[in-house]
Amino acid sequence: MLRVGDVDVARIGLGTNRLTDTPRNTAFVRDAIAAGIGMIDTAHSYTGGQSESVIGEALFASHECVVATKGGFGDGRPEVLRAEIDESLRRLRTDSIELYYLHRVDRETTLEESLSVVAEYRDAGKIRHVGISAVTIDHIERAQKVLPITAVQNHYNLAERASDDVVDYCTERGIVFLPYFPLRDGHPALAGMARRHGATPAQITLAWLLRRSPMMLPIPGTLSLEHVHENLGALGIALNDDEFQTLQRLP
Predict the structure, then answer these.
(1) Residue 166: closest CA among 232, 108, 215, 218
(2) Partner of 207 for a Cys bridge, out of 96, 148, 229, 237, CB 3.0 to 4.6 A?
């Protein structure tokens, strides 16, 4: 388990960037939570807003899961962020978003100016905890001068490790690190290790991430309950030192 804000959740979450508004997907979200998912990641921009709406319908009046959403993708101006936060609150059918990320640092608007809007909503109780996405250590340190940062979300997996320094920074400071696109394409080393553990290559990849840092919380995206169970199964896989180092050295 890992504490995200005020809540302890399983260290495998659910990404919803392909979630569209259908009865089947509404049921899927509920079933994923029943299976053990404790954190769902979405964004104002995902599927034109359908992702947030489905989650809002599935979880209306429920507090079984931490829902994180994001805003400011491509435009971090204060007026844009205010409109997006208000719309996310309506779509999610909530008075308070548990975790809200600035989705991207805008080239035309300073990080501080964008986050000052998020801070307004946090002070008003409409946002409980704050994160930032696709950032460097410098961005995190600047953000922390505006308000506390609970979580960081960057592209990170076995094949994409440009954020190694960010992972280490978050680990040292107790900031939750959520790698998006956490899975990588197949590799012979993954297949062999999976066979030895009676697991799948995807589970081995997730197990590596979980060992990489105690603050790691992968959020693989899926629309399949079977894959949700598979992903959660990675929580029971313990890689030994040799296995971890073998994966660490993969090109």
Answers:
(1) 215
(2) 237
